[in-house]
């Protein structure tokens, strides 16, 4: 018996990295899964490998949200879970960052999350309940040099999560946020980041002195998607190896 037996989930940014780990674990736990991404080749390959439903999905576009949600409901008859996972990161100090770069990060990470919540309210009401899991970051608690836009977006996700939790509780829709720390994905391997960050010093500062595998985040996401977290809403779950224990947030 799987943790997510009978659930239908939509995962954004699901073609690779943490998103792909969510897709695989949700399927292993018994869910039926639709996932979206702008990375069509990777998305189609994962769909062929796993049997999950892939749809091209730009999370900044309301029309594409309507299409992605509609495809999940048409394929599986309902929608119980949304994982707002899609996100982008660009290392730029404020003095060097263009307004276009700033706007793009806010559009994908924050507006995309807000649009996702808005887009699943009606199908989750029709299903009688639902769980929305918003992927924020430890950067939603602390700021880092070169991460002003990313931190702004992830702080914003925290606020949207809490407001949505209050608004949607009456419909038995729960909304929580997950805050990963150092996760071994292609995003953190960006040359602009690795060139600026002293990796050895960074690891020495950790409590658990290693990067996490994406599935270690997925296990927390699956718990929040499941009925075992039925009394959790508006809450924040860090998956950071103790990174924030000394941050004083």
Automatic annotation (TrEMBL):
One GO MF term: androstan-3-alpha,17-beta-diol dehydrogenase (NAD+) activity
Full protein name: 3alpha(Or 20beta)-hydroxysteroid dehydrogenase
Similarity comment: Belongs to the short-chain dehydrogenases/reductases (SDR) family.
Keywords for this protein: Oxidoreductase
PANTHER family linked to this entry: DEHYDROGENASES, SHORT CHAIN, ESTRADIOL 17-BETA-DEHYDROGENASE 8-RELATED
E.C. designation(s): 1.1.1.53
NCBIfam families: PRK07231.1
First-tier enzyme category under EC: oxidoreductase
Highest rank taxon of the organism: Bacteria
Keyword flag Cytoplasm: no
Record keyword Oxidoreductase present: yes
């Amino acid at each position: 018996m799987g943790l997510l037996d009978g659930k239908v989930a939509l995962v954004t940014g699901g073609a690779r990295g943490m998103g792909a780990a969510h897709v695989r674990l949700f399927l292993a736990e018994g869910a039926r899964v639709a996932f979206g991404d702008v990375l069509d080749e990777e998305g189609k390959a994962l769909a062929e490998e796993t049997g999950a439903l892939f749809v091209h999905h730009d999370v900044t576009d309301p029309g594409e949200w309507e299409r992605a949600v509609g495809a999940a409901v048409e394929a599986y008859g309902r929608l119980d879970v949304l994982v707002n996972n899609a996100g982008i990161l660009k290392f730029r100090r404020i003095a060097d960052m263009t307004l276009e770069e700033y706007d793009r990060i806010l559009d994908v990470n924050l507006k995309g999350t807000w649009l996702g919540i808005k887009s699943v309210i009606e199908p989750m009401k029709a299903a009688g309940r639902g769980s929305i899991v918003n992927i924020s970051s430890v950067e939603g608690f602390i700021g880092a040099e070169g991460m002003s836009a990313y931190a702004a977006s992830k702080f914003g996700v925290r606020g949207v999560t809490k407001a949505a939790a209050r608004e949607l509780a009456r419909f038995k829709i729960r909304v929580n946020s997950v805050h990963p720390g150092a996760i071994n994905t292609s995003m953190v391997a960006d040359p602009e980041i690795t060139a600026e960050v002293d990796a050895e010093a960074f690891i020495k500062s950790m409590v658990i002195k290693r990067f996490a595998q994406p599935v270690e985040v997925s296990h927390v996401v699956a718990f929040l998607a499941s009925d075992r977290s039925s009394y959790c809403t508006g809450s924040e779950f860090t998956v950071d190896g103790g990174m924030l224990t000394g941050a004083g947030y």
